[in-house]
Amino acid sequence: MSLDRLIEGIARTNNPTVAGLDPKLEYIPDCILKPYIDQYGRTLEAAAEAIFTYNQGLIDALCDIVPAVKPQCAYYEMYGWQGVRALERTIRYAQEKGMFVITDGKRNDIGSTMDAYAAAHLGVTDVAGNGIEAFGGDALTVNGYLGSDGIDPVIKVCRQRDKGMFVLVKTSNPSSEELQDQAINEEPVYLMMGRQCEKWGEQLPGKYGYTGVGAVVGATWPQQLSELRYELPHTFFLVPGYGAQGGSAESVAGAFDKRGLGAIVNSSRAILCAWKKEGCPGEDYAQAARREALRMRDAIAAVIPVITLE
Amino acid sequence: MSLDRLIEGIARTNNPTVAGLDPKLEYIPDCILKPYIDQYGRTLEAAAEAIFTYNQGLIDALCDIVPAVKPQCAYYEMYGWQGVRALERTIRYAQEKGMFVITDGKRNDIGSTMDAYAAAHLGVTDVAGNGIEAFGGDALTVNGYLGSDGIDPVIKVCRQRDKGMFVLVKTSNPSSEELQDQAINEEPVYLMMGRQCEKWGEQLPGKYGYTGVGAVVGATWPQQLSELRYELPHTFFLVPGYGAQGGSAESVAGAFDKRGLGAIVNSSRAILCAWKKEGCPGEDYAQAARREALRMRDAIAAVIPVITLE
């Protein structure tokens, strides 16, 4: 009922990073894409098959050194139900390889509708008495604009099924300031939302001091990462914005506690496109991704305390 | 590049309401569900086929009297990619029958990820130079917590493809007060978000005075509906929370302008479950839905000005 499995994966691999699986077609080498286009034409089926094959290669190359993957729903939805099927297959394949899956859907709604999202992504769907996992991720990102009515249904499923969630607190993008930095009762909205995470998390306590209700805080805001690490001692952070968006190892260091825990840093483009950046053939994309993931692991290890569960 | 097509549909049917297609299996009559269970077993396939058949019946019964449908993504995602396929089929079927489709996904993200959501739900996905509509809705609900970085990509697609959007402003649920009612610079968050809609909407002007950037405002907040109608003269409202959540015709009257325009009111459960409430056989579910839709149309007509585009 928490993020303990994620934290144990981080300790096992000695690596507080997650690989974002945002499979734009332009990232996928021709050696993977072209055979499917030849077989299915320029269709959503071809794209979806290429995406799954590409993801399989990445997962195989990363699963012993990276504890988690974060598929971004948007890049699957854009390929229709065929793409959504590739998302489902990707989630299951990553879990078979022992990885923790954070489904990045930023879902939000209320009451029985939020029950439906929680069932879809973390829980079980009932069909005439038969319980079926629809997508089966391990944690889901959610948006808290609607308040507790949108969070409680997810907490319920997390408690029943040992899952976790990450609430948007301070997002990595420049215009996050429009609402998130505004002051309510002399505190910024992001801090108010963060305090809500602490409160919601009381219902999902974890073994290592962090609850099942994490927070999304961007790598582009080093000062806020440090501030929030201090203010929210039981809230685990998912940190996007490393690499392409400008976040560095130094800028995320403040997100971690004295045990080297407290955060997991996402990288998508740098890992997915490492083969292009290295100038190596498309056939080597997975090994290039592995080399980049190791560089990222080492860069972060250099600026945070040694990771320990004690 | 606006919500003009929706407004014209409202004027044509003389009906400012939208039928929410939230197809929980418990709403679906046995005469529809059971044959699919017999054929496919208690599977997601069976559920998805039943949902699509159920929706077809509703759309056939409503398309001449109701201008729009609002499928709620959560109730399709919970049935996996098979359910998402039923969503896609439902959207196309409703459009074939001349209905405007508001895809209720409350999607949100930034930059190229939001581009992907916009392409998925309103735009076109490129596969090796071939442009394909993945879901093809007419408008999408979105969550503005991330600021303009999450809205601009949708505006771009709306402009290119004559589509619209609705941003969450003041949601119908009780805990919307936790963030949305808090004061920033002496104005509540919902009003600040509403003013952003007016600003974003300047890029998508419409023929009838309303832009392509609408706002979601709950039927449960009559005072705020009137306040926002006054403060946001160019922003069209999508009003959930009528019926089951407690909103009445009287409580939504303030959302409309002097031409009977300015808002569309959603009803899901009351329409979908009319056959149960009326105590009629499942076979008559679609006609029961039609009767309920007519009652709702007449109840709202009684409290708003006569609808005119002039």
TrEMBL record, chains A, B:
Keywords: Decarboxylase, Lyase, Pyrimidine biosynthesis
Residues forming the catalytic site: 106 (proton donor)
Enzyme class, broadest EC rank: lyase
CDD domains: OMP_decarboxylase_like (cd04725)
Domain Orotidine 5'-phosphate decarboxylase: 16-288
HAMAP family registered for this protein in UniProt: OMPdecase_type2 (MF_01215)
Entry similarity comment: Belongs to the OMP decarboxylase family. Type 2 subfamily.
Protein name per the record: Orotidine 5'-phosphate decarboxylase
